[in-house]
Each structure stands twice: as structure tokens, then as C-alpha cells.
Amino acid sequence: xxxxxxxxxxxxxxxxxxxxxxxxxxxxxxxxxxxxxxxxxxxxxxxxxxxxxxxxxxxxxxxxxxxxxxxxxxxxxxxxxxxxxxxxxxxxxxxxxxxxxxxxxxxxxxxxxxxxxxxxxxxxxxxxxxxxxxxxxxxxxxxxxxxxxxxxxxxxxxxxxxxxxxxxxxxxxxxxxxxxxxxxxxxxxxxxxxxxxxxxxxxxxxxxxxxxx
Length: 213
Hints:
Elements: H1 2-12, H2 14-25, H3 28-42, H4 52-63, H5 69-98, H6 109-122, H7 126-129, H8 136-146, H9 151-176, H10 180-184, H11 186-212
């Protein structure tokens, strides 16, 4: 319970936690960021870790000189690419067995089915679009592996999506994160970055299920 409480607090107040970590551990903050992005995108059972909000906060911290923008972006792009490649490989290897799994503590089959329907409808572009959608960005590369999408094609979408995702959101944080209104309402912005894409995913899954009924 304490771990869940800490994770929830970290996700919703990632700006405060990250600033303290940077001030305390210096360059080790880059290793922590790399690990978070890699695990969120690379391990199919970890879709709840912060992604968009973390990148925005990193950009904002770069904007005020607490971190290096080139170093942070470079490392996070690599982490995002490697994470998706890892997730794709897991799906490619274990995919056929997954369809036999029921809802469990470690695997949410409903979320997997939503990602699968989204992928089936939009094809390879999902790999890029899903980068900006919580949960889907964790499941989409896994589904691509299950569907045996060619590794070359997947890698092209993976790299392009990672560049757009990391550079886009970090740059937004770099230029807008220090604006007084943004700083004062950062908690609301973080909630919006979590809830709005999540609602879009649920709405898309509901429409797809309604059409198939």
C-alpha cells in the first residue's frame, strides 16, 4: 500500500520529486529518467509510470538550467527506442501465449484488447500515435510483436515516434514550463496529460466494441 501511495504521489507531483532528486543526486537523475522511460515503454506490465508529464517537467527543468536539454533529450530518445524494441521482442516471442491469459494482477486483458483493436484499425502508424497516449504506448509495441510486424518497419515507426514524442513534449516544457501560469497550474496540467489521452483511448475502444457487436 505504501508503494502504491508513493507511486501515485510521484506521478501527480513528478515536478517536485524530480527537482529534489536532481538537487540531491545530480547526474544520477539522468539514469533515473532513462530507467523510468525504458520501463514504461519496454515492460508490458508497467503502463502506469509517468511519461508525458515526466517529459514536460524535464523540459521545464532544462529551461531553467537545472538539467541539460541535449543530454536529457538524447538519453530519453534512446530509452524510448530501446523500450519499444524490448516490448516488441517480448510480444514477438511470447505473444501467442498471451491470448490465453485471463485478467490477473499483472496483466490487464481489457487494456490489451483495447490496444489490439486500435492497432488493427490504424496499422503501423499506431506505433507513432500511441507514443502520446498513456497505456497504449506500452501495449502498442507489444501488439506489434504479437502481430509479427516486420522488425525493420517497426523500427522505422519506433524511431520516428520516439523523436516526435520526446523532442515535442520536452521542447514544450522547455519553452512553456517556466511561465508563471503554467507553474501555478502544473498539477492540473499533469492531470490533463493523464486523463485526456486516457479518455480518448476508452472512447475509441468503446466505439470499436460497439461496431463489432
